[in-house]
Write a structure and sequence with these properties.
Pfam families: Mito_carr. It comes from Equus asinus (Donkey). InterPro entries: MCP, MCP_dom_sf, MCP_transmembrane, Mito_Metabolite_Transporter. The chain contains eleven helices and no strands.
Length: 309
Amino acid sequence: MVGFKATDVPPTATVKFLGAGTAACIADLITFPLDTAKVRLQIQGEKQGPVRAAASAQYRGVLGTILTMVRTEGPCSLYNGLVAGLQRQMSFASVRIGLYDSVKQFYTKGSEHAGIGSRLLAGSTTGALAVAVAQPTDVVKVRFQAQARAGGGRRYQSTVDAYKTIAREEGFRGLWKGTSPNVARNAIVNCAELVTYDLIKDALLKANLMTDDLPCHFTSAFGAGFCTTIIASPVDVVKTRYMNSALGQYSSAGHCALTMLQKEGPRAFYKGFMPSFLRLGSWNVVMFVTYEQLKRALMAACTSREAPF
């Protein structure tokens, strides 16, 4: 590798794995309040009909939700579940994003020209595999984000307490609650997010509209975030409701979706759409830009270590 520029050297699987987890944690730190607002909006009205829910809505809009939470629960409430969120990203994003290129090469048998089918298959595979690794952290994160500090006792006192309480009260299966909708959601999200980013970036580079640098990464990431929000919102709302539900409230994810449709109508599946888009759009921009730069920095460090002079 002596004599190669860092950007000309393909990043190794280890570099991608570590870079993806680190970049996702940085993105989560910046965008977590938007994710918390999204969860609060998604679970709002789940025990009421659409008319009563609209009349008694505690949260209205992204900014309104954030301001209400700060006023009634304090600024720290916006970061409820952050520890579990970072645990989730370090294990989850490392697999679904960091292994995407390796799995894509596996499906194309090492060919540099990957078709849309191979990309979709790779995205679905790593998305589903990531859920198998990180599901308990996602359950705890959602539970923390959903609990309000004001007006009653808190459901969980700490991240460790949440893991212990869920396992004690709901059994081991409680930590894996919502795995089915989460597998579906993340297969969809991964396909929409990674494949869209991949395709937009390739199109921009092939058309010579941009070079493989920050503006290209920013544009591709923003487009990927928008497409992902539109496609994944219905599954995301069902996943959030089901994971946050009390034991026995819903018999399955399908029952949760059907109950939502009957009580709140089709629009319920796009509750929290704006914070979802703001969060996914900004998260994608921060994550992909950071990820691309981390890959280059790590490969530059590896190159300098192998060729110090």
